[in-house]
Design brief:
5-stranded mixed sheet, 12 helices, about 950 residues, Maltoporin, Chain A, elongated, mainly beta
Amino acid sequence: MELSFDRRDILLASTAVLAFSSVASAQQAATDQPAAGGEQLQEIVVTGSRVITNNSNSPTPIMGIGTDQLKTADPGPLANSINLLPVFSGSRGLTSNPGIGATGVQGGNGVADVLNLRNLGAVRTLVLFDGQRVPPTLFNGVVDVDMIPQELIERVDVVTGGVSAVYGSDAVSGVVNFVTNKRFDGVSVHAQYGISQRSDDKAPNFGVAAGTGLFGDRGHIEGSYEYRDQTGIAYRSDRPWENLWSIEGAGTAANPYHLVSGVHLAGYPFGGLITKGVLAGQNFASDGVLSAFQAGAPTGSACCQVGGAGGYEDASLKAPLRSHQLYGRMDYDFTDHLRGHLVGAANLKTNQVYGVYTQLSNVTLSANNAFLPAAYQQQLSAAGQATFPLSKLMNDAPRNRGIIRSDQYYFNAGLEGDIGTYHWAGSYNHGLTDMDTKAVGDLNQQHLAAALDAVVDPATGKTVCAASLTNPAAYSNCSPLNVFGPTAASSAAINYILGNVEFRSYTRMDDVDGQITGSPFATWAGPVSVALSAEWRRMSYNADSDGTPSGYADCTGLRYNCTSNTTTVWQQTFPSSGIVSQTVSEGAVEFDAPLVKDLPLVKSLNVNGAARYTSYNTSGNYVTWKVGLDWHVTDEFRIRATESRDIRAPTLYDLFQPASVVPGTFPDVLTGLSPYVPSINIGNSHLKAEISKTTTAGFVWQPDWLPGSSLSLDGYHTTINDAIVTVQGFNPAYQQVCYASGGTSSYCSLQSRPNGFTDTSAANAVTAWYIQPANIAQIETYGADLEANYETRVLNRPLAVRLLASYQPHILYRQPNTPTIDQGDAAWGQNGLTAAPSVQLTAFLGYALTTDLTANLTEHWRNGLKESGVPGQVWINNHVASFGTTDVTLTYDLEKRLGIGDSQIFLTVQNLLDKNPPPSAYYGSGTSAGYYYEFVDDPVGRYFTLGVRLKL
């Protein structure tokens, strides 16, 4: 299904309550202190534990933030505002590189909104929905959090630290739990409209929620629907400061890496460059007319020049998004001690991305090509040339485009009750993701070979495809392609050589879990809480493709550009996969024991522990554990600490990914060339689970002398052994290790070339790269998180301030026979890693200007970065400037004016000062000017959202 984004620029008048919510600390939010209306807050089970019912007693750092505050900071999808929290870095989203592949970090959707705690990888961040594991959206095991219904989300809890002993695999760097309002009563409606200052990235959004009690309040039902249509930004050139940035050079002392703007591809002009023979070095700068290729300034890379006649890419800057979210929940008290619930959700989402122009790389053309002017045919004939090669970017054809439809369905049924003083619960979860990735404008290489061989039909005198004369049954509809000029190709020929390839994957999860909690005995300091739990889970995956890597072209009757059993029908291919599955059986125990209370300097002292046994039928058996200490020194000051052993098991994609081929241009360090060759992705069925150890320690201070204030500071240290990393053959670091070994390194198996690993001539250029996951890394990181809160009154009006800060100086990646890479403070890294600032700050400030008007200010800042943390690289100015933005929201209370319910109107201005992000690019992708680079920061600029919300 293609998306249409024709919208009138009308600001939708509608309803919204993004009133200022309390910015009290998470530690205060879940305590049993009186709420504003004098009611007691309900006891809740704390995210990250099955036995602790008060965040103020949790040894694990937990940050809770209400959705009102999140939406005040960013009224778009919740992922946008969550990623403002400093503990997140390296997340992907709508402004990520617009890949149209079904491999690697993309997982079928390169612009999915995925959360990454501490930049340890989204696969190591566990996403929960009301405490239940969310089924993967992407087939690499990652959850696209846009798929979680957001209309009734009450708050988001972020647990920073390993909790695999409580939740199982993937909870290595932490947990993000989306918590719904399960007792919503009444009707709420909201609508909003967003638009950038440059009149693009328009975003209408509408939502409705309703809930009511049933059967004399023994039951409750609620539901919601939300529609979002974000039109995105179709071209990177739509931002004038965005000027074809690229990292060029070789990273050596003689040719250091450096950031360059205005970069063009020297060998691929839009008109077509003849690369060898008597006409070599000439370009069809205008249709049918050759002229000397106008070179640009050198960049230090053979591929690229600044300016000149070379072509360049112009991919989309921000991907469009359209989604429909539906959610329903019903619960019922069968008796005073038996309750049940049913939950259903459906999320229908479509992203669209625009990628590169079709690239012709040294295609062979006949010297008698019918479109080639006679004068040039004569020159070739005189030189004895029967053919000649040509390269170009076809900007007269549409950019290739990806349409990614993700339909995710979720069902949960559960029962819970009480047996004496014990509480039990059990549930069944079923999830299905149907993801359809369509590559629109994929190059049909068989059709291209036929269309490039244009001849004159002796019977009619018309220009036709030669194959239509020799094999009319197969090529009667062939339309000849004129490549001699920037606008020479006909629309019929473009439609003939380009087509659509569809890749459809299905991911299923069935999960059954049960638990019982209670206090079997007590110490003199209080009752000991114990929880027993068990879980069984089955994951399965399969995929279908109509353009597989094994789909080779039929070269019968084709003279050029087609090799049997080598040339695939489609340039961009996707692998099919039969059903693969894994089952997991788990059992766990957790306890919380008070040891001391009411002694000098020990108001209370509790120890918390958990252990879990996990058995995977695909990757073995594991034990995880966690021990925590919660020490209330006084009523004002407490100390907390944890240590845990956690795992991240390989996903089905890690284990069983079928071979997939993505052609690309990457620097061949051995020969100095950048050939256009396939990158072949394969799985590894011998993978085992990663083993992680995390230690956290910190304090929480709520001083009586400053009412309304709190301060927390927590340090952490995480080491992951046997870490699964995707080893990319084209990575320059792996190449160097291979060549230094003379071909004996295991990294040499990640590339193919004809003459071994010492021949540096062009004849030995690489012919293929291989990409495969392996348990070969150790990852280590450490740092600290700070949270400060203060509530008071200024001029007799409420003022609330919340400051969140994160310090993470190093993220060390160690692999055999390669230098240790420090991703800390680096803008770019290997295997899809993105920016990891060592210092991030986010501040929220809310103040009631009048009784009806509230102002909320959000400030987000990161420190300066290195372009790369790879040792041994030589750079000119290896630096990306620091960056900060200011967002403001004004909320006006309409309740008194309208006299109906709780209603507000709001205006949010993001990037109030319209700051342009500092340019940056990845050092390993300098061969695709205008495409393989993105931004550490949001590139949209100043953005306005107007909306209203009504609650009845």
